[in-house]
Specification:
It is built from eight helices and twelve strands. The protein has 227 residues and is of the alpha/beta class. It has two domains: 2-121, Rossmann fold; 126-221, Orthogonal Bundle (Arc Repressor Mutant, subunit A). Strand 4 (73-78), helix 4 (83-92) and strand 5 (96-99) form a beta-alpha-beta unit. Helix 2 packs parallel to helix 3 and helix 6 (153-163) packs across helix 8. The two termini are 22 Å apart.
């Protein structure tokens, strides 16, 4: 799952991130509500884990603003133990509540259960252009006209991300920060990944069927979904 952690205390933020990455989640960290909102505006997440006691904009106000933008699952971490406060936070739009000090193992168990639910609701296959292109997220396989095409790990991640965000334009920097910020790669390598994907999909840059280039802006997946 793609998880956004919002916690200004770095040790706690890093601890949650460490455990989440060990469970193979894609993790983005933020240390203020303001930073988190910027990330939410340019990307999508499956889960947000947030503290309430944040500098400047508080967690309650953050939840209100997130709910105006997204129905993402929100888990709140807070030292406040009063039942009324928990109810108030849930009423604002949070989905779950863990009281500090909390067990990281319990949080990971919650994420594991949530992932099962999300996976059961997600399509097992993405199909485009009347079945010409089929992407199997769980099996990490791609078929072009029913012939399996081999992709590197990063090429697959990029293709899957673009195709699951139909018609949205992503800049090179956004793609790098969203998908590959933890690697030793650099933003210009995105162009190489796109070039390789196009070659493997027999997709021409001048008359694209799947990935369109917006010069100076970025890349957009334009395949027609069969859903």
């Amino acid at each position: 799952m793609r998880i956004l952690i919002i916690e200004d205390y770095k040790k706690i933020n890093d601890l949650i991130a460490l455990y989440s990455r060990q469970d193979k989640h894609d993790v983005i960290q933020a240390f203020s509500a303001e930073e988190a909102l910027e990330k939410i505006k340019i990307s999508s997440f499956d889960v947000i884990i947030t503290d309430l006691m944040l500098p400047k904009l508080q967690g309650e106000d953050l939840i209100k603003q997130v709910r105006a933008l997204s129905d993402v699952y929100i888990i709140v971490l807070s030292a406040k133990t009063e039942i009324k406060h928990k109810i108030d936070v849930i009423s604002l739009g949070a989905d779950d509540y863990l009281t500090k000090p909390f067990s990281v193992e319990e949080l990971m168990a919650k994420l594991k259960n949530l992932e099962k639910r999300i996976t059961s609701l997600s399509p097992t296959i993405y199909s485009f252009n009347q079945g010409d292109l089929k992407i199997h997220p769980m099996g990490r396989k791609v078929f072009l006209k029913d012939v399996e095409i081999e992709f590197t790990h990063n090429e697959f991640e990029l293709l899957l991300y673009l195709s699951s965000h139909l018609n949205k334009v992503f800049s090179r920097d956004e793609i790098f920060n969203l998908l590959f910020s933890e690697s030793d790669a650099y933003d210009r390598v995105i162009d190489a990944y796109v070039k390789n994907i196009r070659k493997k999909l027999d997709d021409q840059a001048k008359s694209p069927k799947y990935i369109k280039t917006f010069y100076g802006a970025g890349y957009q997946f334009i395949g027609v979904s069969d859903d």
